[in-house]
Design a protein that fits this description.
The structure holds two protein chains of two kinds. Chain A is an all-alpha fold. Chain A folds into two domains: 107 residues, Rna Polymerase Sigma Factor, Chain: A (Orthogonal Bundle), CATH 1.10.1740.10; 61 residues, Arc Repressor Mutant, subunit A. Chain A has eight helices and no strands. In chain A, helix 2 crosses helix 3 and helix 3 packs across helix 4. Chain B has three domains: 49 residues, no CATH class; 61 residues; 40 residues. Chain B has eight helices and no strands. The longest helix of chain B is centred in the last third of the chain and has 28 residues. The N and C termini of chain B lie far apart (91 Å). Classes of the chains: A mainly alpha, B mainly alpha. At the A-B interface, helix 2, helix 4, helix 5, helix 6 and helix 8 of A face helix 1, helix 2 and helix 3 of B. The complex binds zinc ion. The site of zinc ion has 6 residues of chain B, from helix 3.
C-alpha cells in the first residue's frame, strides 16, 4: 500500500531532492514493483519492462528537483514509465512500419499538477475487495485467473471450459463495472 | 489514426491480447493522442489495483478455504435444531408409539433430538448439493445466507423438506391406525 499516511514518502522526496541517494533508494523500492507491472503490460516482456523502469527511475531522479514533494511520487513515476514504454514500442517497428513515423518520442511528463491516481490506498483495496465479492461467480473467477494468476485469455478459457469470446466479454464487463463503482476513488 | 481507442481496446492492449497489427495501430494512436494515453494510464493503474486485490483469496474462488463453521453455518445449525424440536413436538406421540412397537424407544429425549438434528442436517446438505442451480455451490455447500445463494434452490429445498415431512407423518399415521 503506498498511501503516505505517515508522511515518510514526503520526507524521502525532500531528502532525495537534497541529494540523499538512500532516501531515493527507499522511494524506488516502494514503487518499482508497480512500475514494472505498468511497463510490462505495455512492452510485453519482463526484461524490457526492467529496462524501461531503470530508465524511468534515472529520469525521475534527474527531474526530482522540480518535483513538488507534497504530491504523491508514484503517479508521476507511472506516467514516465508509460511514456517510455510507448516509446519503446515505437522503437521496435519490427514487423510493421509506423505510418507517419516522424513524430517525436513522448517527453518525460513534467512534475506538474494533474489528475493523480492513488491506486493502492488501503481504503481503495478494501472497497475493491468488497465490490469484487459482490460480482457474479463467473466474473469473479475470470478476474482471479487473470489478475491473481496472470493467465492469458486462452488459458482461462481452457481452465473454465468456455470459449475465449466469453472470457473476453466477462473480463471486460467485470472490470468496467468495478471501475465505474470505484470512480472517483481511483481516477 | 483519427478515432479514439475504446475502453475494450485499451484493456485488450494492456492484456497483450490484441493481434500484432491492431496492437501497433493502437500504440501509434496512443503516441499521438494525450486523451487516450491518459485513459490508458488510468486503466493500467486500475489493473495494478486488481492485481493486488485478487492476490488475496476471494471467497468463491477458493471454496476450500471457507471456514466449516462460520457464523452463518452456526446460525443455520441453530435453525435446524429449532426445527428438530418443532418436528419432535409435532409428532411426539407417533414416534413414541412407533418406537415402542419396534422396541427401539428407550425414553432418551436427547437421543431422539440428536437423531432428528443429524437427519435434518444431512438431508439439508444433500438436498442443497442436489438442487442448487449454481454448479459451484454444489461443491462448497453454502449456507442459505451465503452471498449468491440462489433463492430458487432454497425454495426447492423447503418444498422437498415439506413433502418429506408430510409423507413421513402420513406413513406414521397409517402405521399406527392399522394396528
Ligand atoms: Zn485518442
Amino acid at each position: 500500500m503506498n498511501s503516505d499516511a505517515d508522511g515518510s514518502e514526503t520526507r524521502d522526496i525532500t531528502s532525495a531532492k537534497a541529494g540523499d541517494e538512500v532516501a531515493f533508494g527507499r522511494l524506488v523500492r516502494r514503487h518499482e514493483g508497480i512500475a514494472l507491472r505498468v511497463a510490462q503490460r505495455i512492452v510485453g516482456t519482463p526484461q524490457e519492462a526492467e529496462d524501461v523502469v531503470q530508465d524511468a527511475l534515472i529520469r525521475a531522479y534527474r527531474a526530482l528537483d522540480r518535483f513538488d514533494e507534497t504530491r504523491p511520487f508514484g503517479p508521476w513515476l507511472y506516467r514516465i514509465v508509460t511514456n517510455l514504454s510507448l516509446n519503446r514500442l515505437r522503437q521496435r517497428r519490427d514487423t510493421i512500419s509506423w505510418q507517419g513515423t516522424e513524430e517525436d518520442p513522448l517527453p518525460i511528463p513534467a512534475p506538474l499538477p494533474g489528475p493523480e491516481a492513488q491506486i493502492l490506498t488501503r481504503e481503495t483495496h478494501e472497497r475493491l475487495y468488497t465490490e469484487i465479492n459482490a460480482l457474479p461467480d463467473h466474473y469473479r473467477r475470470v478476474l482471479a485467473l487473470r489478475h491473481g494468476e496472470g493467465l492469458s485469455y486462452q488459458e482461462i478459457a481452457n481452465r473454465l471450459h468456455v470459449p475465449v469470446s466469453d472470457v473476453k466479454s466477462w473480463l471486460f464487463r467485470a472490470r468496467k463495472r468495478l471501475k465505474e463503482r470505484l470512480e472517483p476513488g481511483i481516477t | 489514426m483519427n478515432a479514439h481507442l475504446d475502453d475494450e481496446t485499451l484493456t485488450l492492449f494492456l492484456d497483450g491480447e490484441l493481434d500484432r497489427t491492431t496492437r501497433l495501430t493502437a500504440a501509434q494512436h496512443l503516441m499521438q493522442c494525450p486523451a487516450c494515453r491518459e485513459r490508458l494510464i488510468q486503466w493500467n493503474a486500475f489493473f495494478t489495483a486488481l492485481d493486488v486485490t485478487t492476490t488475496v483469496p476471494l471467497p468463491g474462488a477458493e471454496p476450500e478455504t471457507r471456514p466449516i463453521l462460520g457464523s452463518r453455518r452456526l446460525l443455520w445449525l441453530a435453525l435446524e435444531a429449532l426445527l428438530a424440536v418443532v418436528l419432535m413436538a409435532g409428532s411426539w406421540e407417533r414416534w413414541v408409539d412407533l418406537g415402542r412397537r419396534l422396541h427401539t424407544w428407550n425414553g432418551n429425549l436427547l437421543g431422539q433430538f440428536t437423531l432428528w438434528l443429524a437427519s435434518l442436517h444431512g438431508l439439508e446438505s444433500d438436498l442443497r448439493n442436489l438442487l442448487s442451480p449454481v454448479r459451484d455451490l454444489q461443491r462448497i455447500i453454502p449456507t442459505p445466507t451465503a452471498p449468491g445463494a440462489p433463492l430458487a434452490g432454497w425454495i426447492a429445498v423447503a418444498l422437498v423438506l415439506g413433502i418429506v415431512w408430510w409423507f413421513t407423518n402420513r406413513w406414521l399415521l397409517n402405521e399406527s391406525t392399522h394396528t
